[in-house]
Amino acid sequence: MTKLRRGQRTIGRTVEYRGSGLFLGQEVLIRLKPQPPNTGVQFQRMDLPGSPPIPASVAYVKDYKRRILLVKDEVEVEGVEHFMASVAGLGIDDILVEITGKEMPAGDGSSLVFMRLIKEAGVVSHDTPRRIFALSGTIALEDGGARIVALPHDDGLELSYNLDFGDKSTLRQSYTLSVTEKTFSQQIAPARTFCLSSGVEEFIRLGLGRGVTEENCFLVNEDGTASTPINRKQAVLRFDDESARHKLLDLLGDLYLTGMELRARVVGTRSGHLLNVLLAKKIFELARAESSLSRIADAKV
Ligand SMILES: [Zn+2]
């Protein structure tokens, strides 16, 4: 069954939030603002001369190691993925994020802070139809032992994730979600970010993780248990399978860098931002090719 195309949505009023990013730890103010149809999701660096905008598009992804970095004309914004998951999950098409620094705030390491902000602002629908892309063929991408497959799917967007760290941890989890506002809000938005305990030293060496607190992320240990990141106490998880759910949150956010509602079934196995972004790029290119074909067809009529 194919859902009817609904109108584009923005938020009802301006809302703001102040917080620090997970990697750089710099405090920033973000201000979410309503936008007219067909403007998409955009960031705007208010701390730089001329307040340059950066569209939340896969075309501007310059790095995807552990987080998403967008760069346009040397202007950067990073750590956007948990915000992108919120706007994808809540079906927001057009929104501006004014930000006073380079990195999006971490909140509690999940999408909750952004979800609550958007819900506080309210949602407004316009008549202009949403941008939708229904996948018609299969796309399969691999990188080392990681794999991501996207398949045609009639009923919205369904995401599955198979978590497996190989010999780095015994933890194995799988999670599947048919994405709606309700399933996103209840099952995925609260899932916090995590890091393998074996990867922490490298993290510190790279000068990252300056915004890490005991609560906004957790470590996955070799024996499959979870610890707090600083005191290394047993972590209290929000879900038994919080890690797999967080990987779905990242996948949802990364795929929304296509700027479209996606109708497909996507299965990730050991995958992360790299394969998510490569898949988003493929879908973005397919959609562009299809729209230029339809423009040619329209011109011939
Ligand atoms: Zn994440």
Please tell me about this protein's structure:
- The protein is of the alpha+beta class.
- The two termini are 30 Å apart.
- β2 (15-20) and β3 (27-34) form a beta hairpin.
- α1 (81-89) crosses α5 (242-255) and α5 runs parallel beside α6 (273-300).
- 25% of the residues lie in helices and 32% in strands.
- The protein is built from 6 helices and 19 strands.
- Strands 11, 12, 13, 14, 15 and 19 form a 6-stranded mixed sheet that branches. It has a 5-stranded mixed sheet with strand order 2-3-9-4-5, covered by helices on one side.
- The chain is globular, with a radius of gyration of 19 Å.
- Bound molecules: zinc ion (ZN).
- Zinc ion is lined by residues 81-82, 193, 246, 250.
Summarize the structure.
The protein is of the alpha+beta class and about 300 residues long. Helices cover about 25% and strands about 30% of the residues. It starts with 6 loop residues before the first strand and ends with a helix.
